[in-house]
Amino acid sequence: MTVSDKDSPQNVRASVSDAGKFIHHHTEFPTTRLSQVMDGVISAIGKTASWLWLVVTGVIIYAVVGRYAFGAGSVTLEEVQWHLAGAGWLLGLGYTLVTDDHVRVDVIHERLSLRSQAWIELFGLLFLLLPFLGLAVWEMVPYAYSSWQQGETSQAPAGLPYRWILKGVLALSFVLLILAALSRLLKVTALLFGFPRPIRVESGNNKKEDAS
């Protein structure tokens, strides 16, 4: 075999077998019909939540101008800032997982074959991420409910009421993370075991087709 043959794109594509037909974003994992629906919901929520950062920027500018130009500081505006920033960040967590745009620190993972990566993901999802997220939701739902029952408000003078809303968003964000993790789990099992059945993702305006 010549050097050119060894490094040819055809052989590179062949090294990942038929999985290349089902490439989904830069993860190279296949997608399924159910995971597409779950990803779509989570992505819509994440993209909508991203507009909160524009609102946060406007509130910050308004608060800064009011404080330094007119000497009118506001505790309410300060709390609005971190409430909105917290909600925007929390609701975006699931989006980063379904798009695989979260930070990865495993330098070994990227050097492994696609199937080896999938086995690592399978182990991590089943025994690390999903149990942690389940425990987090188990604790956070009563945490938010208790805040609602007590009518919890900010302890600061002129602070915001309804503190349970932010705590509810915290619980919701972990529920969305669970859905994102389950969606990713479906993609991993589709690659490793062929179940659920992977689907072909066409670019442009072409429709998605079932894999044969």
UniProtKB/TrEMBL annotation:
InterPro entries, per database record: DctQ, TRAP_DctQ
Pfam families with a match to the protein in the record: DctQ
Superkingdom to which the source organism belongs: Bacteria
Chief location of this protein within or outside the cell: membrane
Coiled coil ranges: none
Quaternary structure note: The complex comprises the extracytoplasmic solute receptor protein and the two transmembrane proteins.
This protein's name: TRAP transporter small permease protein
Organism whose genome encodes this protein: Marinobacter daqiaonensis
